[in-house]
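Appendix B.2, paired examples.
Example (i):
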Amino acid sequence: MIMVENPNRPIKKMTWEMFDQACKTLSEVIKVKFPNIKYIYGVPRGGLPLAVKLSHLLDLKLITEELDLDVFDNVLIVDDISDSGTTLSDIITNIDGKTPIVCIFKRETTELGPDLVFETIKDEWIQFPWEV
């Protein structure tokens, strides 16, 4: 994968240690806020590392096939970032409105935000550890 950085944005580099801490923090809040979750689905590609880590921390089954809410109920959808909101918008049009969405980052200007986020950012370009 070739990552083209935006030269007009400051770069925020997330390390694996920062990722682990974000996941631990998110998992504690998820346990309280969404106690009935049975499955976790990571939006390809950026949501997959988060989904795997949270599935271990929360002892949830990981959905690896296409998300079908007629088959799976009590699903948590995760992604690395809500940047413009386009990806989440596409997902939300296909879900029931009761399925929570969690992201590590959310840009202040996103048109559609998740139900839970670890950190809201302004204009930083995020470099995730799996992109290095």
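Example (ii):
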Amino acid sequence: MADVFDRQTRSRVMATIRGKDTSPELTVRRFLHRRGFRFRIHARNLPGRPDLVLARHRTVIFVNGCFWHQHAECRFAVMPKSNRSFWREKLRSNQIRDRRTAARLRRAGWHVLTIWECEIGQAGLERLYRRVTSLSRHRQ
């Protein structure tokens, strides 16, 4: 499918995409906060600046966009048709960075959870809640 925007418009659209405080991230934050979890956001002192840091539970949560982090087998993780070599390299480097960041955090004693953009519905949020509470029970 051809892009519906010309190059300049596409560039402007892509430049407005935020890296933090995204709609999926805000949804996850509200959901966990309503259930009593307290957390820090975008902790600069941790590798990868996790979206949420539940220090009490020694858990970090990344809220990943399916396109930007190339969620495997996801309908939103579509490779752009134009400038393919750039996008292939860009998205592959994002995945490599994500794996390295998670490994560094695990070596430092953190539990690393990822919730994908496509999972942010009630079922996915409930699954995340169960994972976090399960990890917190194991720490006690």
